[in-house]
Design goal:
Oligomer: homodimer
Number of helices of chain A: 12
Organism (chains A, B): Streptomyces dysideae
Keywords (chains A, B): DNA-binding, Repressor, Transcription, Transcription regulation
Low-confidence stretches of chain A: none
Protein name (chains A, B): LacI family transcriptional regulator
Domain HTH lacI-type (chains A, B): 1-55
Order of helices and strands of chain A: HHHHEHEHEEEHEHEHEHEHEHEE
Mean pLDDT of chain A: 94
InterPro entries (chains A, B): HTH_LacI (IPR000843), LacI/GalR-like_sensor (IPR046335), Lambda_DNA-bd_dom_sf (IPR010982), Peripla_BP_I (IPR028082)
Structural class of chain A: alpha/beta
Chain lengths: 330, 330
DNA sequence: ACAAGGAAGTAACGCGCGTTATTAAAGCGC
DNA sequence: GCGCTTTAATAACGCGCGTTACTTCCTTGT
């Protein structure tokens, strides 16, 4: 920077003013041009670390996930990343691998790097408890919530998702809709079932509990559940299946095809999660709902930026809709 | 840090010595204990940015990928990440989205952050040309190579992969092995075909060109190709299919099942890429080869660490084996 | 002609730390 | 008791930059 100043025939301060577009500093165009030329000629690059030190603003946000691999975390990262870079902020990403020790170590490193905020994301919607150190810095939870309900969080709107999926099947003319659910104890399963039942009631149909079977989140479990549903007498057999996730839909597909039934003519299927590799390549392609991971990532950075700037949050608990992806299974 | 020094009754320098385990500095246990106690009591955390500035070592490596989403990039990141954190180094990750402008911007930011090395990873094995700015810092290519052949690179061993897949089918007793290949012009397709033919020749079988058909990397393309192969007269029909990737294997599965043939009894299948969501949930589960993305990521950080330390590289071009994942389709 | 005010630019300090050169005290052999 | 080495610790500088307080020069109005 001193070299630039010397070459441009000004002081280092002036160079700094130009680089930061300092408001209130009167820099004639001619001087500015000389400085920019010098920067270009010398190939000068400001040192981000030194700037951070002097300005007392690191520009970093931390992002802790359980695993970096896996489509979910990757999408959150994508969303957060793009939003952050656009804002000239940067993401220090760490994976906890589900290990509290690694998680604590990662958090330590982040605090040493003076992150201005922390994003904590989980693979599936559930409650979490953070290490105490997380209180030292603004924190936003993504796809999870803390038991004490103190931290702001961003969650998928499971209820409206279940409603939307069911509604889609109702619109296609189905009235007996089987629901192969996830583990019934988790928030996703509870919310989606509520949405499912609300959609039915809104259509004037009384929810039939026997049409709801847990598939335990596996393809095999869903296969078994689908067999059970499809082998009922014709009058009780569902003409559509709403599956808790796409892997489960895969199992359901097998059960359906095995019985010589066609999708969607004989049985329609809606999945959940939009696991691209499954949904887009099943035959026929699977209509499913997407968990809005990328949107949750960007929203997380937004909220963090607000918090870091000292602004209050309008909403402490944000829910984001799960969009329906129309393919060929309905 | 001054507070710590004051509380411990020593100078800031002494605190620094303790923090860095400075060799040659004689610190009595008693003094060290007092300092560590003071650190603990005050909850002091060193400022990583300031350390970097003073020591002139940022501790950062940059990682540029085309997309952060997608299983490939995610695995590379996982590998690089775990290796880097273990070494107290950190990854500044950016996605180019295939856009040269974004790529250049990302690189600029990385250089401003004074990364000590750059990892450049692509989604599929191919040649690349880097922005000139990349020359300013040690660079290692992952899953790609530069046309000039100047930069060190890490590549999957396609030839041995093709050989291993074919060998597995030969070992299972197959002699007419169809190969539904990727776009024949790309390195992966070329290497794997070489391996395929070598394995055949080693088994005393003359490669039959008509058994090799491009599937153009899509499930539909592979489906068409598989139909063509399976509809040949019995004597010319392959009893096993080696597919260029798992999506293509998915298409092949459909063609096989449609004809009432069973996997693996009538037709065995080997895929490539180990796209977990497909390979592990197809029925029967798909035997496939994994691209060693995670290993490539860790190796990349290793090489970068060596380069950043000024050590010469033993090998300029590293290839890593593609392991066979045994499931149920052979 | 002169004060007032703005335009253009600078010197100097501090951010939090690593590191070198130096000092002061303590131990040791005789 | 004296010189010499080791031990323990420190003052002071610099890393690359942002920022504040200050100076100098030019314009403008009267």
């Amino acid at each position: 920077m001193s070299d630039v100043a010397r070459l441009a025939g000004v002081s280092r301060t002036t160079v700094s003013f130009v680089l930061n577009d300092k408001p209130g500093a009167a820099i004639p165009d001619e001087t500015r041009r000389r400085i920019l030329e010098a920067i270009d000629e010398l190939g000068y690059r400001p040192n981000a670390g030194a700037r951070a030190l002097a300005a007392n603003r690191s520009g970093w946000f931390g992002l802790i996930t359980e695993i970096v691999t896996g489509p979910f975390a990757a999408e959150v990262i994508t969303g957060a990343q793009s939003r952050a870079w656009g804002d000239r902020r940067f993401l220090l990403i760490a994976a906890s691998e589900g290990d509290p020790a690694q998680e604590a170590a990662a958090l330590d490193q982040m605090l040493e790097h003076r992150v201005e905020g922390l994003l904590y994301a989980t693979t599936w919607h559930r409650a979490v408890t953070l290490p105490k150190a997380a209180r030292e810095v603004p924190t936003v939870l993504v796809n999870c919530y803390d038991a004490e309900g103190e931290l702001p969080c961003i969650l998928p709107d499971e209820e409206s998702g279940g409603h939307r999926a069911t509604r889609r099947l109702l619109d296609a003319g189905h009235t007996r809709i089987g629901f192969i659910n996830l583990d019934p104890a988790i928030p996703a399963a509870i919310g989606r079932r509520e949405g499912y039942e609300r959609a039915l009631r809104e259509a004037g149909i009384t929810p039939e509990p026997s049409l709801v079977i847990p598939g335990w989140a596996t393809a095999d479990g869903a296969y078994t559940a689908a067999c059970e549903l499809l082998d009922r007498p014709a009058a009780a057999r569902p003409t559509a299946l709403f599956c808790g996730n796409d892997r489960m839909a895969m199992g359901a597909y097998d059960a359906i095809k095995e019985r010589g039934l066609r999708i969607p003519h004989d049985v329609a299927v809606v999945g959940f999660d939009n696991q691209e590799l499954i949904a887009a390549y099943l035959r026929p392609k699977l209509t499913t709902l997407a968990l809005p991971f990328e949107a949750m990532g960007t929203k997380g950075v937004d909220m963090l930026a607000a918090l870091a700037a000292g602004q209050p949050l309008d909403t402490h608990r944000v829910t984001i809709d799960c969009p329906l992806l129309e393919r060929s299974s309905v």
